[in-house]
Amino acid sequence: MKLKPLFTMATLSCATVVYAQEAETVSPLQISGSVDTYYKYDFAKKQNIGTSFAYDQNSISLGMIDLALKKTTGKASFVGELSFGPRGQYQSLLNGDMTDENSFHIQNLYASYAFNEQLSLTAGYMGTFVGYEIISPVGNFNYSTSYLFSAGPFQNAGIKANYNFSEKFGLMVGLFNDWNVYKDLNGVSHIGAQVMISPVEGWTAYLNVLSGKSAGATGNGTILDLTTSYQITEKVKVGLNAADYSISNESGGYSGAALYLQNAFTPAFALGLRGEYFTSKNEVNGSTAIGVVPGESVTALTFSGNFKAGGMTFIPEVRFDNGSETMFTKSNAALTKSASQFALAVVYAF
Amino acid sequence: MAGSVFSQDTLSLNEHGRLILYEIVTADKISKEKLYERSDLFLHHYKKFKVIKEGSTDSSLLARGKFVLTKNSFVLSHPSGEVLFKLSVEVKEGRYRFWLTDFSYIPYVRDRYGNFVPSTAKGAPLEQRPAGFSAANWNDNLMGTAKQARVLANDLKKALEEDVQQPAKKAAAVTVSTNNW
């Protein structure tokens, strides 16, 4: 009895090539991270400038060790990022769920699904989409941070959808917990959105908004943020961050702008200048933001060098802050309007 | 098998001092029109290396693409950068040539979400050898680029020398009845 073949297939000639469907992408587990350490000296011989990290005075101090895992299987991926050390724990993350002293040490913990090349959905605990500077020292040119960074959100846990209309235009919308918390105590209370535009090659701008009422807050807070950078030439880059944060019920907020100018003289050496103006809003229920009381302002100039050798970057830096009123102290404890410091930092990315 | 004349197994330098992978291939009995058609089809369907057709004449095609370089060190593995390139194909009766050049390197940096993204929008020519400790990375980048360029070259040659056939549809499975026998 002849058995019919269960399957039949057209015979391909030996001299043919077939453009097959793209196979499902399975990337190996990506492991990366960084370590950083620094020395900072304030010329008033005490801690003065209150922005994040580089906090310790006249001490060779720790930043953090940061480890990130990422894996992609087909359309799904996850990222888990842990950090240990002052910068990666109490200086950027709250303890546990605020009921104990444990820290989860988590900078990013989220999963993402790409429905297609345009649309993706991401949920979990993520670095904030707002602002120019970030927690990881690898992503910043300057080692000390701006007032805008320190006053703004660090993490936004939530769920968000990204849609890439083209390489030049994209949109994100999402629902988020309160700023910088693992657990939202008054329900998922914030809505956020981001528009990305890239008018010409090398120039990208992000318009961000995040609004909601945090647990215990006296009013609804809304932050509007512009983050943009333009790689003018292979060597010269300009960046701008401008933000305005307002809390309803005359509860204050802040606003400011920072300009970043960088020139890479060689692939191994670059110089950068950051100029910032920051003000705390003068409102009845306003509170002090990063040492700047309501109604006062501060300007800050930071000069930084980046010397690169393989994965290591050495960052010498000098910074001058000047307040509208006395907001710093001298070595003799007298109040003063100005403060200055220099820092030496080493960052290694792997 | 069609004969080919190529510069070297690794990237060479052209008369302008630019890195290049260059091959001239003899394809006997394949007409210019057939070679052009296959080249055009290749640039439209080839999914690797983000190859995108940019222009064409009656005997040449131009495309651009990028290679993603991966840093592998013990247990560490992650994208370290990308190399942009231009691909040119020219066809004649019974022969063709192609070259990859204008390589420019963009290092990656980890962003706020833990993903590796280009650190800059403008790449540096891959010919630029950095001094000091970064030289080892440059050598790795050259080797990684040459390896992937060779893969693209082999895929292109295979596509030009063989007939292209759309994937055959799978025949429906024949249902076997065990009732009547």
Give the tags:
heterodimer; A: 350 residues; mainly beta; 16-stranded antiparallel barrel; globular; B: alpha+beta; nine-stranded antiparallel beta sheet; 23% helix; flat; disordered N terminus
What's a quick, concise take on this entry?
Chain A is an all-beta fold and 350 residues long. Chain A contains one helix and 19 strands.
Mind explaining what this structure looks like?
Chain A is mainly beta. Chain A contains 1 helix and 19 strands. A 16-stranded antiparallel beta barrel of chain A has the order 2-3-4-5-6-7-8-9-10-11-12-13-14-15-16-19. Chain A has a two-stranded antiparallel ribbon with strand order 17-18. The longest helix of chain A has 5 residues, at 147-151. The termini of chain A are far apart. Chain B has 181 residues and is an alpha+beta fold. Helix content of chain B is 23%, strand content 40%. Chain B has 2 helices and 10 strands, in the order βββαββββββαβ. Chain B has helices at residues 32-45, 135-161, and strands at residues 4-6, 12-13, 19-26, 52-56, 60-73, 76-92, 95-110, 116-118, 124-125, 163-164. In chain B, strands 1, 2, 3, 4, 5, 6, 7, 8 and 9 form a 9-stranded antiparallel sheet that branches. In chain B, helix 1 crosses helix 2. Chain B starts with a strand and ends in a 17-residue tail after the last strand. Mean pLDDT of chain B is 85; it is low at 1-8. Strand 1 (16-17) of chain A pairs parallel with strand 10 (163-164) of chain B, so a sheet runs across the interface.
